[in-house]
Design a protein that fits this description.
273 residues, alpha/beta, Rossmann fold, six-stranded mixed β-sheet, 9 helices, 34% helix, disordered C terminus
């Protein structure tokens, strides 16, 4: 099976200026390599600050890598300019963690969901509206939502809207950066079930970032464990999260709070609390 997305020795160093003008370097990523095949769901797990979100931002080129290579279908996209990236952005979309700050309060849902397709161009307003209504239905919302504003919806509904917006360009790869961490547990399960259905219906490839081990096991075929900007372990999710080989992975599992019984990975993420 040929690789859809290849990440090779990717690094990212941030430079900050502190007191008295002293420059400090923060190494967010240190030589991360990862291969994603079409149709796979890859989970990225690790503690806060391990570089998960930085990796996502580099893949969609919201930030510039310090070194390393990102290839999409064999094409090097690491340092493409904005005008060269535009046609490729259709193929990779991202859903962010916070459903409240990722939607503009001044735009209707119709404007928000339609924006990516309008930016790409080449579609009539009728086509854009039809696709927006179809995607809203697929994420469990009615077409009437198009005329309303974000503040009229709950957190779970807003995240569904964010997912619909990301799918407007018919992407092949969907990066999900902690998409359920800000939601109630019952709502988390609903969103995860929607994502599972969408992956099957639309033949999507997922890069799913989470600190919740039960969620990663539920939605991912493969799991990548990160620590301090590096990959410490990767493999099939069942194996990684039930029989880890690395001490750090075992520590992550043992750190999950379970009252009155030893830790166990849950088949249904709705059970996690």
């Amino acid at each position: 099976m040929s690789a859809l997305l290849e990440i090779e020795n990717l690094t990212k160093t941030f430079r900050t200026r502190g007191f008295f003008g002293k420059v400090k370097e923060v190494h967010a990523l240190n030589g991360v390599s990862l291969t994603i095949h079409k149709g796979e769901s890859i989970g990225i797990v690790g503690e806060s600050g391990c570089g998960k979100s930085t990796l996502a931002n580099l893949i969609v080129r919201l930030e510039e890598p310090t070194s390393g290579t990102i290839r999409l279908d064999g094409k090097d996209i690491t340092h493409l300019k904005e005008e060269e990236l535009r046609p490729l952005r259709r193929r990779i979309q991202i859903v962010f963690q916070d459903p409240y700050s990722s939607l503009s309060p001044r735009m209707t849902i119709g404007q928000i969901v339609a924006e990516p397709m309008r930016v790409l161009g080449g579609h009539s307003e009728a086509e854009i509206r039809e696709r927006a209504e179809t995607l809203l239905h697929m994420v469990g919302l009615q077409p009437g939502a198009l005329a309303r504003y974000p503040h009229e919806f709950s957190g779970g509904q807003r995240q569904r809207i964010s997912i619909a917006r990301a799918l407007m360009t018919e992407p092949e790869i969907l990066i999900l950066d902690e998409p359920t961490s800000a939601l109630d547990v019952s709502v988390q399960a609903q969103v995860l079930n929607i994502l599972t259905d969408l992956r099957e219906k639309l033949h999507l490839t997922y890069l799913f970032i989470s600190h919740n081990l039960a969620v990663v096991k539920y939605i991912s075929d493969q799991t990548v464990v990160m620590r301090r900007g590096e990959v410490v372990e990767m493999g099939p999710s069942d194996r990684i999260l039930t029989a880890p080989s690395e001490k750090y992975t075992r520590e992550l599992i043992e750190a999950v709070p379970m009252i009155g019984k030893p830790f166990r990975l849950l088949e249904d993420p709705a059970e996690s609390l």
